[in-house]
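Deviations from the work plan: none for this task. Representative record:
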Amino acid sequence: MTTSAHGPMGNHRDVDGRDDGPAVVVRNLVVDLGSRRRAALTINGLDLTLDVGIHGLLGPNGAGKTTLMRVLATVISPSSGEVRLFGRGTSDQASLRKIRRELGYLPQSFGYYPRFTVREFVAYFAWLKELRSPHPMRDVDLAIDRVGLSKKANVRMKSLSGGMLRRAGLAQAMVNAPKLLLLDEPTAGLDPEQRLDFRALLRDLSADTAVLVSTHLIEDVATACTSVNLMDSGRLVWSGSPGELEKLGAAGAIRTDRTADTSAMGISDMEAGYSEALARNREQN
Amino acid sequence: MTIHQIPQRPRLGVRILMIELRRSNIVWIVLGLTAIGTVLLVAKHPPFQRYSGWTSTWADGAGWLNAASLVLGPLTGATAAWIAGRETRGNLQELLESTSRPTAQRVLANWVSVLIGVTGGYLAYALVVATAIIPGVSNAGSNRWLGDWLLIGLGWVVCAGLGYAAGRLVAGRLVAPMVGLGLYGASAAPAYFNAQWVQLAPVAHLPSAGGRRLIEWVVPVASLWLLALVGVTLLLSIPGKRRWSILPAIAAIVLAVPLVNMDTSPNDYLGASWSEIDPSASRLVCTTDQGVTVCVYANHSELLPDVAAVAKEMLTGPLGRSHFDSAVESRYGIPVPVNAVALPDLAGHFRTFRSGLADPALIREITAANLSLPRCADETSINAFYSNNAALLSYAVAAALIGGSSLPPSPDPSSAGALLDRLRSAPSASQNWVADYLDASNQCDVPALARIGQRP
């Protein structure tokens, strides 16, 4: 029997002293959903390693970001390749159950029970994640507080705005203090002010957790992430820091056309770096 | 780094069940089922209906619950289907699949809340029915009516289970109403068949009736049959466990075999049935006053004082005393002694939520009508009676006996009315005439009745 420290975003070393290594290790991942979907979403030989920190996953629509997130969330199984989360494989039910206790997932299309209050919803998912805590409701309240919804804790989900719903989704993802937090398009559908608030929230996440934020908005990764992974057509085409992506944009052949008086030169360089990396990959292939 | 001990008694599970109960609208389910059932009950009685139709016995109460289940059972199924479909309506499948708790536990927590709601709704409605019965109940009969009420409640649970499984297996907002309609149709359809298997239907076909009781071994076997059905539906609701539903399905088939192969009980008008005549409810209880004995069945003994008063009124008059010395409640298939007036079957003459007769005047009318009809054992004589004007005489005789100013409904009101006028115009002569009529009637002397009818 293992025990581990829990409070939202607490430390997670198993008492038996086992070091799980990187939170995520993916080798030669292939996912082919073509036979089951009208629009085939495929991952074709992807390698990825993630450790603690906030990692961005960028890419155009259809790149396979959501498919990768679903694989890491253990919602779908890979067609081939290796996926190890916290040092465990994802092929057997016992391992899956242990992995899922340490996961937090906010899917792109976030569903909820409209009649549940925020507190009930987060508590329900704490139960679903088999939260082992001497004071589970305290952890629930802490998660709700961290996302700034304490005043809305007893409000029904159906009464929340889009931004607050996302926060509630983040709260349920964080309540079990996951080792791996997966956020798929967390700012989708939010207005600019709500996006700013959400990015600020991401920055405040603990350094003891591996966070993977999937987005097609460069602003999201620029403000919160310590590393950026760029996907295109089911493959990982570039990895590095936001600064390196900026430099790639500044030095690359493809430039976006920006007016001189824009105050967002940094973002422009990053956007350019993004386009540059995609262009180079497509040229090679 | 800090380490917390794993708690010995996790409390989150209990809290989740409370959340499920609140958010599955359990209170509204209980109130809704009770309210609809109460409306059905009230609508069955005056002023919404001409006659009461109510019988305040526990066995008849089971009969009413059984009938009401035709509507309330499908309602519980539709409600359960709606609750079961919340995961697909809420677009939560992806999020739920990423969690660690086994699906079976999650489904079970939700199902338990549905079960509590349905059970609570049944118990609440049963309490309403009991409240309607208790003031007028006669403490006669065996306690096997408890088995009836248990099986009816389990039938509701089966309906909920079927609805829940449908809600989990099929996505869509129309699933719930379709389940309700489907269950209603499936519950009503067996009424058109006269076969033993009809009794297997979870709702609306239990042979519950006053004066009867379930055969002793039927209650546990039928309970297990219904629980096996619940098991099938529950396992069908859980992904990954569906193949295991074959086990309770096999058990259900095994249990159904004896339930559909009952032997026909002798002298039982219901034929092969899960129920039998209840001797303790069917024995006669009597009272004697002024030389007149009035008897009713034990499960209707609560009405004996009221009925005796009505019967005595007719039997202590010159006409009654000279021809009859008792009045006995009649029941289908059980003959009344020749020297006794046939009282109506008192089933359906109770008042809801109160004691006493619903309509003493109606008892008087029916008793007078019974008294005026001939005691014929063969169908030929009965047909002869109705084919000539002797039948018209009976209406006038009945009206004269109860001293009423109006006739009971008859095929030829003008002829019967004319006779009644003649009887009233000459009271002393009419008594002789009526006495002769009753003598001929008791002996089924149809030609004599016809001659009497020709006398002025």
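The first helix of chain A runs from residue 65 to 72.
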